Fold these 2 entries.
Entry 1:
Amino acid sequence: MSIFLDLCYRLQREIAGSLPFSEMQCQALLQQIIVLLFRTSSRGDLPYLIPQQQHAIEKALQIIHLRNQDNLRIGEIAAEVGFSSQHFRELFKRYVGISPKKYLTTLKIQRSKCLLLHKEYSVTDVAYHLGFSSPQQFSKAFRKTIGLSPLLWRKAYMLQDESVLSEKY
């Protein structure tokens, strides 16, 4: 529930802010909300976890969302919520549907897309800002998740944005 509310809050802020590229950011947030709703409906009401476990995983999700730019380690998160690393991974996957590492990486990649839309940030800047240990590690994760390198993705969206602007004027 907290992820859903967080996404709704971010969507509301994006709409109210009227920042450049807000339409693309809103689309991305809406897609995340839709995926979350589909996953929740397909799993029912988060089975297999007792309330204390659900609370711990929700707390872990909050930690991930608040500190995803830090160099977070799954073992550190597990310790903060009171579980061994292995038990935490099992509970997290049961609750969220993917491993905590994949969740954290996907979150970072989604946030990197917003940063890559700003020409003043290099791929290296984005990689280090999001807590990747190197630009190569970031590029590899980005390519694996999105299917394009960060530079190619940036070029594609910058060209798309320029064509939209030229159509408007």
Entry 2:
Amino acid sequence: MIRIAIDAMGGDFAPREVVHGAVLAAREYGISVQLVGQPEAVQNELKRHEIQGLNISIIPASEVVAMDEKPSKAVLRKKDSSIVRAMQQVADGLADGVVACGSTGAATVAAQFIIGRLPNISRCAIACEMPTINPRRCIVVDAGANVDCDANMLYQFGVMGSILYAGIHNVKRPRVGVLNIGAEETKGNQLVQDAYKLLKEQNDMNFIGFVEGRDFPMGKVEVVVTDGFTGNVSLKTAEGIAKMVNHMLRQELLGSLRGKVGALVAKPAFKALKARVDPDEFGGALLVGLKGVCVIAHGGSKHTAVKNAIRVGVDMVKADVVRNIETSFHSVKKKDLVKANTSSEIN
């Protein structure tokens, strides 16, 4: 049985929504769920649900890392925090994966300190799925773990993203592109130019070159490689545009009797569309490059998003993504790649 540890105290609606989502996941996916947090608070939320026959346990943790705390300092100071204890479950082999809905920075720092990076990996990255016009989503790597990157890091993001996508969707050679201001080889700054050269030399990868921000929503690529600053801005811009379109559509449809009739007729189509673009349906993003599975969900996640974040963790465990990345980088280490000396945090 797959075991998933969950930071029950992380996020804007913890522990209520986190516990609710965990109960749904335990029931739907038939997994073992470990709720890490303050026992009394977690137990009080569990009483709201029918959990008989479900494999749910509570792992005590007395402290909580708040969203506004400096991630590195908080993780080091609060050794009995729920995020630290949840990561420790994976590091100790007591859980197969971990899900965190609180501070992205704290989760990233705790994961790298406690679970640790795989050999030859310079930096871990957040791999986040985004909708496209195709049935399958694309993956953006990095979506926010590293503000400052070098070409070697982008190269590694491309390799890990390709392996991850292949594992999730059973696609042998997913198309990989570097996000740039133009598709021409001469466009872009020195960072993307250097990354282009490294990725072009990787024969095992289906590297298609540069892609623009408008290309990946149209399904032209499966894996988008970028630095964490640009990736995070792209992700949140896309979320904002989706909300804006939804708001404007509602205004137009509900603004007249004809619009209301049309909305009623098209309701099934709107429901299907919502499922394709709703962030809650995506669940969470995977922190790739670790020695274990770590899924980071949005701080505002409610129970549906939490349940789906756990689903992402289960899928990663089943696809054996960690071992596949580790195996791939045994050969990558022969390249003369220099480790990055800088990193930044996004909360």
